[in-house]
Write a structure and sequence with these properties.
globular, 11% strand, 472 residues, alpha/beta, 7-stranded mixed sheet
Length: 472
């Protein structure tokens, strides 16, 4: 029997539940986003010693275990031979805690390990590398951990740990050595780790020489420059045993659009590799194929990214209903192009442009688009920009006299041109109106939320949460 437990209560209640006989059959235990500290980790470790043949997945993401909690928890992991997935992301774990975990790994059967968003640093990465390159005899020395001969580790995620070039070199050296032939690592996530060209050269050597069947390598949002990135491409192209299928490099500010075009061409010449991931290009292909949802969260579109995204929207096969552009560095100059997308792609009901660089100028462009009869939006999120009072006032004026909008009947094409929006068409369709407008975190201070009344206006606006409005 497969039991799923999601817990969101105090440590004492957790301890009472875990030590009961009902937990013997738990296979998936999710304790993420609680406040479990080292004391709770000790109690959890005691309970885990009794679940040695049952537990398959343990999620402790975003607690407060720190190094002491890992030191208490690591010995208990040796008893959980059935454990396949362990998530310790966001627990303020340092190099000392990772060292304790490394000593337990040889006795586990982990396939997935996540240590993202911690404080590993270069020393923590070196501790993991020491476990990977341990001698095959199985002996324990003072300086080297026991080899992970029985550990079928396939996915290692250590993003956002500031390991730098030194940490990347330590991991690359460990994964390149002949003593790691037992390792089955397929996915390595090193995103957002301050890795520069020196680390990229070391990782390129790993890709070219490593005996591990690496399939996915994530180096997004690092400090790679042209030289390091080109070395990685050469490794993909000429690696003797390379099986690399995905190389994520977006978010490295010194890499331009022309570089990613070269990535595609270089990868096509590599018979053992697939085209590296270009999220924007993938989104364009999805739009052309008629998908309903495109999420580009965190993908920096660049100077002409919005124009590239808008280009396929004139195709009548586009059926988008949700477009998420969260944290893509949109600016006011991109808004006319985005508004043009809304005028052509009549099916987009939900648009998320939160966490960008929009000001009152961009808000004015969007509010003007909301007044167009063909605007399809039902849910609009502009949270955490900088539109201020003037931007909020633009939306207030737009909401005072909402336009008549169309809802395309089910089964009809979702693409319309300006000539299709006629009075006769309006009369024969349902009305689509904006329901939710979210403006949280925009610096709106004066004039009763910048002109949008909390109690309502002529459009029936009512406040939900922090500057979030719902229209009936």
């Amino acid at each position: 029997t497969f039991f799923v437990v999601f817990l969101f209560f105090g440590q004492q209640s957790l301890w009472t539940m875990l030590k009961g006989p009902g937990c013997d059959g738990v296979a998936l235990l999710d304790l993420s986003w609680n406040r479990i500290d080292s004391v709770g980790a000790g109690r959890l470790a005691e309970a885990l010693r009794r679940c040695r043949t049952k537990l398959v997945s343990l999620n402790l993401e975003c607690n407060d275990l720190q190094d002491l909690g890992i030191e208490l928890l690591a010995p208990a992991l040796r008893c959980c031979r059935s454990l396949r997935s362990l998530c310790l992301a966001g627990n303020r774990i340092g190099a000392k805690g990772v060292g304790s975990l490394a000593t337990a790994l040889p006795h586990c059967s982990l396939e997935e390990l996540s240590l993202s968003r911690n404080y590993l640093g270069a020393h923590g990465a070196a501790a993991l590398g020491a476990a990977f390159r341990a001698p095959a005899s199985g002996s324990v020395t003072e300086d080297v951990a026991v080899p992970i001969v029985a550990c079928p580790l396939r996915s290692l995620k250590i993003a956002v740990n500031r390991i730098g070039d030194s940490g990347a070199e330590a991991l690359a050296e460990a994964l390149t050595g002949p003593s790691c032939s037992w390792l089955k690592l397929e996915c390595l996530d090193l995103g957002n780790n301050l890795i520069g060209d020196r680390g990229a050269f070391a990782l390129a050597g790993m890709v070219a020489q490593s005996r591990a069947p690496l399939v996915s390598l994530n180096l997004a949002r690092n400090r790679l420059q042209q030289a390091g990135a080109e070395e990685l491409l050469k490794a993909m192209e000429h690696g003797h045993e390379s099986r690399l299928q995905t190389l994520e490099l977006h978010g490295n500010v010194d890499l331009g659009d022309s570089f990613f075009s070269r990535v595609v061409m270089a990868s096509r010449r590599n018979c053992r590799s697939i085209v590296p991931l270009d999220p924007l290009q993938s989104a364009l292909q999805m739009c052309k194929a008629g998908c309903y949802r495109v999420d580009l969260t965190g993908v920096h579109l660049g100077a002409h990214g919005m124009e590239r995204l808008a280009a396929p929207m004139s195709n009548r096969r586009v059926r988008l209903s949700t477009l998420i552009l969260n944290n893509v560095r949109l600016t006011d100059r991109d808004m006319p192009c985005l508004c043009d997308v809304l005028s052509h792609c009549f099916g987009i009901e939900q648009l998320d442009v939160s966490w960008n660089r929009l000001t009152a100028v961009g808000a004015e462009s969007m509010s003007s688009a909301l007044q167009a009869p063909g605007c399809p939006l039902v849910h609009l999120d502009l949270g955490y920009n900088s539109i201020g009072d003037d931007g909020a006032r633009s939306f207030a004026l737009a909401l005072e006299n909402p336009p008549q909008r169309l809802t395309v009947p089910r089964g009809s094409p979702v693409h319309v041109d300006a000539v299709d929006v006629t009075d006769a068409h309006v009369a024969n369709t349902e009305r689509r109106v904006l329901r939710v407008l979210r403006l949280a975190g925009n610096g709106v201070q004066g004039g009763r939320n910048g002109g949008i009344n909390e109690g309502g206006n002529s459009s029936g606006v009512s406040v939900q949460g922090q500057l979030e409005f719902q229209l009936p």
